[in-house]
## 1
Amino acid sequence: MKMAGIAKSSEGWHWTPSGGLVAGIPSKGVIQPSQNIKQSDAVFDVIVIGAGYTGLTATRDLTTSGVKTLLLEGRDRIGGRTWSSNIDGYPYEMGGTWVHWFQPHVYRELSRYGMINELVHSTDFTKKHNYFSFATRSGRRTMSHEEEDEMFSRAMQKFVNVDGNFGKTVMPFPFDAYWNKNVLKYANLSVADRIAQIRHDLSEDERHAIESFVLLCSGGTAQNSAFLDFLRWWAAGNYDYRTLLDTIIVFKLKCGQSEFARRFFNEALATSNLAYSFNTVISRVDSTNNTVRVTTRDGRAFQAKRVICTAPLNVLSKIAFNPPLLAEKTEASKLKHVNQCVKVHAEIKDPEMRSWSGVTYPDNKLVIGLADGKTPAGYTHCVFFGCDANHIHAEENIDETLKAVKKFAPMDVNRLVFHNWSKDEFAEGAWVWYRPGMEVKYLEALRRRQGAVLFANSDWAAGGWRSFIDGAIQSGTEAALTVRGELRGESRASHL
């Protein structure tokens, strides 16, 4: 495994037939030195907790505005649930990957950093194995990608057509999802509930198509995944299966997401307004006094006028807050969202697999796989997804993981690369997907600030691309704007 001067993160896993399973993989997102704090007793303007895209955006926007900011992160790297490992000259995306010009906040940042030309297609339908394999309990068969798209499109239209207009009437504005209050009648509906409503209109193939695709999106089960979340994704993808697919799993950055995240961090660092500390786990946030006091697991304490906390929903309750979190916040964090996505990368020796994709459902530990690129060695890079239904911890039994990969098609696997998000202490899951009823009950409370502490995260960002990189950037932008305005107001008031 060549690192070419790239630092190794303690996170992630890498397996090869000759080297076996190794913990820790190289990433451009690793920050060295891990801290640059010169005065631990200083009172900062803002402390940002978490260096995912929300925290990075907030930090960048604050520091470039002259705001003295301290960034604290429990990991050894930036990116949070989005990071790439650079192995033998190729970026393997451990978490968030695909972006699109339909995602306005992402595209603005790509434009800002001159990275528009970094966008590349994950798909390439020019190779020999140019087909889709579909394996269910009814058997295994192959079809063309055109037939694949037709089947999935037909099935998804039936799934979302609650209003006779494929969702356009009930959710005309995905960034204001409750604009039509009639949508709230679906708030408590699970994916399984919705499938049951239309079961008489579905073929077995269509039902398997719906379940496999939606579980790719939710990372949960049909029973615990909210239908409303999918309806919002569908609306954001312009009410069209092919367009939705383009926005969520087709266009990625050839340089890797960690290189993109670096642009935010480096711009903030260049201002000289940024102090930071990585490998720094937050244990307590006390905002009962004039300044907010943030205490770390190793006993250090830092102070600031404001705090932006970007801890994800599933781990928010791990931090002790004084005053305590709102009851709804605590309840939601303990209930947790459902996404326990399993994402496994495989380098396949056959270069002709570059045009392949497939589904094996419901009896495999991995549900969907697709060719996602070509490595410098000329091999095919495939990525596979599993969910909480028939869940797997990929590192616990590599033979079982390889078996799950090879259930899709005959494959000579040269390497596996992955990150276990379910066991990740700073995430305990992947991107957000709510349980039925959870969004409507808790979303506003999760967004609500508590005194000098603001809560920003893609898990509860405004509608549209919530749970995406785009939502994270949006949430960080809004939090920074709020804090910057308040601090400027305080500064003006102090001179009156």
## 2
Amino acid sequence: MSSRCALVSKVIPFSCVDGPGSRLALFLQGCNLRCKNCHNPWTMGRCNDCGECAVHCPHEALSYQAGRVYWHEGECQQCDTCLHLCPQQATPMAKTMSVEEVISQIAAAAPFIEGVTVSGGEATTQLPFIEALFRQLKQTPALQHLTCLIDSNGELNISGWERVRPVCDGVMVDLKAWGGELHRELTGRDNGRIKESIRWLAEHRMLSELRLLLIPQHSDYLSAIEPLSAFIAGLGDIPVRLNAFHAHGVYGEAAQWRSAGPDDINALAGALEARGITRLIHPALYL
């Protein structure tokens, strides 16, 4: 087996919101976007052991020894003080896990799940680990029935997608804005590579879901409905998930943005349906 390791922020053994059916969701640490609306902003960076969090932990669940921050899980009350303080947008609670350790957790959950989804942060910033993990799953008879999905922002280049293609069953990709300038304003980068990824994944039957996050007053889907609809139509029969922005868990200026409601989603859905985009998935709930 591989000894490849990854920095993991969280493992959810049973999730029904990270792809079809019940799935084990593996959240990897680190992201190459800086989305203002991120609901998990502490997954963006990596701890540099500055020690700022350890000094202020109210439960003494963090210590600073020999230039390193150590997390004492038994003392942690999950108060999130460290997450709010971290200048790196990281978490001291991230763990280094090997493929073998993750496989062990997957095996324990296997009778109750339909697959594994690797998310983030941005999962593909640790692509060699994903490749090794998925390959091991495909080679393990008791786990071969599990589908292997990636939840991605689409920033990976085509050579990266080609690399993981033999062992990946599908990719769910977010298109956070249509216009490149607005996308840069919201995320720190334009979306040229993301659109390229979406097209390539659809062409190679790897795009399992396209996701649009509607942020009232900050999304351009309706104003760009014609090119957006043409783009989606060109992908083939791909489900489009309409996600409603909510401010819960968001830091910074986006915490003051208005949440999207049914009227916002229905307006976008109606505009897409009028242009032949009918395979839409509406939010299960609104916060």
